[in-house]
Amino acid sequence: MKKQKRNLQHRAYIRGYRAGMAGRSKGLSDQCHGNSRPDWLAGWREGRVDMWDGLTPVEGTFKAVSSPH
Questions:
Q1: How far apart are CA 35 and CA 40, in angstroms?
Q2: What DSSP state is assigned to residue 25?
Q3: What distance in Å separates the CA atoms of residue 62 and residue 37, rounded to the nearest whole number?
Q4: Dihedral sign, CA of 30, 35, 36, 38?
């Protein structure tokens, strides 16, 4: 049985969130092409806020994956 392809915007959001939680630069968003860049930046911003609020990467990743974005 084949798996369904994942939503590309959601994948970009998750990658941006993880980059933000890791403290990486916003300049890494240049790796995203097309319509996924705004989603990557939204995830990055939320990841940075969560990092500043003291969430651990495990808690933050769970939050990002379960979000309806």
A1: 10
A2: -
A3: 22
A4: positive
23 token code pair: 């403290």
Tokens standing for 45? 């911003």
Angle at 7 between CA 49 and CA 11, to 5 degrees: 35
- How would you write the pLDDT of the chain (69 residues) with one tens digit per residue? 566 667 888 888 988 998 999 888 888 777 666 788 899 999 999 999 988 888 776 666 666 666 655
- Among the listed residues 30, 25, 31, 16, the one whose alpha carbon sits nearest the alpha carbon of residue 61: 16
Q: What is the pTM of this model?
A: 0.72
Angle at 8 between CA 6 and CA 11, to 5 degrees: 80
